[in-house]
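G., the chain you wanted modeled:
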Amino acid sequence: MKDFWKILKRYASPYKGCLGGSVVLNILSAIFNVFSFSLLIPILQILFNINEMHYEFMPWNSDAASFKDIAINNLYWYVTEAMGKWGPATVLLMLCLFLSLITAVKTGCYFGASAVMVPIRTGIVKDIRNQLYNKILSLPLGYFSQERKGDIIARMSGDVQEVENSVTSVLEMLIKNPILIVFYLATLIVISWQLTVFVLVFAPLMMWLMGLIGRKLKRQSTEAQNLWSDTMSQVEETLGGLRIIKAFLAEKKMSSRFDGITDAMRRKTSQVATRQVLAHPVSEFLGTLMIAIVLWFGGTLILGERSVIDAPTFIFYMVILYSVIQPIKDLARAAYSIPRGLASMERIDAILNAPNPIVERRDPVEVQDFRDSIEFRDVSFHYDDGREVLKNIDLVIRKGSTVAIVGASGSGKSTLVDLIPRFYDASSGSILIDGVNVKDMSISSLRSLMGNVNQDPILFNDTVFNNIAFGVKDASREMVESAARIANAHEFIMEKEDGYDTNIGDRGVKLSGGQRQRISIARAVLKNPPILILDEATASLDTESERIVQDALDRLMSSRTTIAIAHRLSTVKGADEILVIDEGRIVERGRHEELLARGGYYKKLYDMQSL
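Predicted structure as tokens:
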């Protein structure tokens, strides 16, 4: 329960008003509940006429008896006086009507206490989802290279849903039931502390047996949620690789693999569910057993004329005792539900508490413009597992120049350019823009200097307009259309039925590869960054699309500092400088003609492509 209270402390603070209202309404509900049950005593007196004693009114401030005895005496006196004045049937009707009124007020308070908990439940789940999503946005790219997207999606959906079902849903029970238990136990003690002491001997035994069943639930819930992540991961992989699965006739193989995962999850969730459904029958049996023991013990005292209470009061005592069983059972159910939610919360916290190595200093430098150069000083980079990617890179990129980076796949080209906007941080050395270390700049101002066009255009399931205007505040239709014209995209956009309001589908699936790339270029044009990063922007296009896109890129690159990663060497002939990277090192640099004349690694790559 310690972990549960930590969760409440983290997420329930904004809802203190609702929590306070729930406590007050539950207290009122408990008071009216006890008071309504107490009306059973005079009703039983009237129905069975089992009390023939004569009562005299006792002053409320009398020292002759305790307040409890005075209250009971005067209640009986009022009832007997009323019966003598209006008759037993009329008094019985009045008591029944009063019982109905008190019950209506009680249930109204109960409804109010439940209603004010709804904003807390839904609000906490919303806050967890928002916090998790914002954390995902803030984590560096390196984190996601080590995690499966399906697992992250599972934590965002299934685990948060489990927290809602298993943690926030029991908030009401954890507020209401302790209040009811306290008031009911206080009432039992007031009625007969001797019988209550006898009852309390058995209560710890019942709670111990209930706790014994739920010890393994949290561990099994964690295993079940891990299997749910495996399931989501395969679904994500299947959707992404459906073309290959069908091409290689691997439907049966993938189906068998998925069936294995879901069957393992079925077995584990069955174990968790079996233990959870065991809670109600066990608590029902133990509660009935306690009632039976107390009924036998109290009944023998009354039958033996040695009881400290009369028969109607004993029945009232039994009603209250039976009423206290239900809150205890609800707490037991909560004790089963909470471990499942805590197991999911641990998986969510694995993301929320993930360290972010891309740290912004307390007083970062706000960069307004790019004026002179980008400089790499003895920069090296390696992953957390020690695998080295870049080694001792020294490089100066002047403003307005175009620098191309070529080399074999896996040589470190993309990692090199990813260090500039701090998608990753260099393991050693420093990167400076206009003489200022990028680690000293604010991340937002640093990245505002740069625009990216990637090999695989990253588009969103939204309209053409919103994809081009992505990241640019208050972009007008004229600005978007102007950017689209520069990117050679305006014509095909206007051919669509809804023009710029056309939805392009998930990742732009409704567009061709060349169209997607031109939308991506238009987005970069609209941002109008002084530094442009092109990551193999034409590598996946056919010849005609490449020509159109390259023309758009040439317009975009004019008057900008451009860093272009390229596989097709023909696209970088006009670069001011070409860097040839092999195994993380710059092995050659120069213009296209100079590198060919040297007959080195670049000449080898060029000849291979010419063939």
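The longest strand covers residues 388-398.

Shout if anything looks off.
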